[in-house]
Amino acid sequence: MANIYVYASNMGTNTDVPNSDFTGSYSFLSKTSTQCTEQWANGQIANLVGTNIVYNSGGNAEFSSGTLTGLQIEASNGYVQMSLTGLSYPFGVGNPGSTLQQWMQTFTGGVADTFYVNGGGDTVNAYGSANTVILGSKGNFIIGDAGTTTVVFHDPRADYTVTATGTSGTYIVAETAGPGTDGTTTVANVTSLQFSDQTITPAAGLIAIDTAAQAVASYQNGQVANGVSVVDSAANVQANLDGLQTISAAGKLSSITLSDSGTPTMTVTAAQLAHDAAALGDISAPGGFVLSITAPTTSATITGIANDANVVTFTGAAAQYTIAAGTNGAITVTNGTTVDTISGVQQLQFADHVVTVEENGGNGELAALLYQASFNRSPDPHGLVYWTGQATTQSWTQISTGFVTSPEFQTKYGSLTNDQFVTQLYANILDRAPDSGGYAYWMGQLAGGQTREQVLDGFGFSQEAINNATQGFTGQSGHHAAWLFLV
């Protein structure tokens, strides 16, 4: 493990000094502490002059030389510091009037090295694994290997463009806005690019990894040859959705990743949904996202995006609309002469009420019923999609464990006795006190070895619970409108 401080490059070479003046073993100054201290020790380095020289430090080292062509520094332990600032000739040897020529240096690390690239025009081979390259200069070339290599930039992601060179895994990262601290850096086979506000992972073979606005501008300027991958906030993607659709229609949009924390919401009109469906289908987010579709004032056909949480929003109260089953799994929502045909959505959001739409007998229905049973509320759309997906690989008892042990359940109810647990289920699902026969039955089930998760499933999936959810009912706290529509 080493810290490698790369101070400068493109330093002058004295072509008039013969090699014999530089061969042999020479002393140099080696720092044993951090980059900026003045604590010095002695060290040795051999064969300072020549081409393609390889030196393995074996420890902490500072190299003070400006005369080598193709010098390669290999770090093992400690840190290696290449300090060339202000040096025209090594150790004062040579003719001060000699012509200088430009050259480039290569720095090679091992495992868990940190390179501080403070010069310009350096090549850093971050071989091995778990390496970090921190930029402090312009015009460098950073090369990763089979392990992980992170290149650290100073400024926000929006200040940079990331463009592929045509060689798989090689990108040019140019700071085109902001203070311009890092200039232009070429990276190859690196694992991630860390900016001051976010970290992105390059995908080999793509022409660019950009913000939504940068991607649209690059495409309009003819700079997207092979494809583009977008990493940006939901708000910025939404603002550039039409332009991203144009890129997608041309077959140049690889993916859109939302950078927001939590579960962001994107809002589109029904017309945008129809026009930009391809781009919307390319969106993913680490925490998922919700697509809110605004219903028009005229009749429309609305088809949600597969595998996303889709919500259609209406301006009026639920009582103003009639929901009915359509054909092929669709529903119709009628308000006067306006009839919307809707499919592939999880919820209808009215001004005063939310109705969840799921397949009769499907996993989505059962997931929705568990929300009511556990939390006494309608499901949130992203959570509904998540747990519906989990049901393809987990049993409902396993899923119920996730509900009962969730922070929301623990915060809302705390630690409950069996008596309190059963009573709470009656309140959540049936909005009534337990009847003596039902109470005795469920307490007996718990005493006989059934888990609370099994009892939760029994309550939540009961016919009475389904009837209450789909038909509405009046309980001890008042009337409850139907909140679940089954197709």
Characteristic terms for this protein:
single chain, alpha/beta, serine acetyltransferase, domain 1, 3 domains, 8-stranded mixed β-sheet, 36 strands, disordered N terminus
Task: Give me the secondary-structure topology.
Blueprint (H helix, E strand, L loop, with lengths): L1 E5 L6 E2 L10 E7 L8 E7 L7 E3 L4 E3 L8 E3 L3 E5 L17 E2 L4 E3 L5 E4 L5 E3 L5 E5 L5 E3 L5 E4 L7 E5 L5 E6 L8 E5 L3 E3 L4 E2 L7 E3 L1 H9 L7 E5 L1 H6 L1 H9 L3 E6 L6 E5 H6 L1 H5 L1 E2 L5 E5 L6 E3 L5 E5 L8 E4 L5 E5 L2 E6 L3 E3 L4 E5 L4 H13 L5 H10 L5 H9 L2 H7 L4 H13 L5 H12 L4 H9 L2 H9 L1 E3 L2 E3 L3 E3 L1
Parallel strand pairs: 1-8, 1-11, 5-7, 6-8, 7-10, 10-12, 11-13, 12-14, 13-15, 14-18, 15-19, 21-22, 22-23, 23-25, 24-26, 26-28, 27-31, 28-32, 33-36
Antiparallel strand pairs: 2-9, 3-4, 16-17, 17-18, 19-20, 29-30, 30-31, 32-33, 34-35
Helix pairs in contact: 1-3, 6-7, 6-12, 8-12, 10-11, 10-12
Brief digest:
The protein is α/β, with parallel strands linked by helices. The chain has 13 helices and 36 strands.
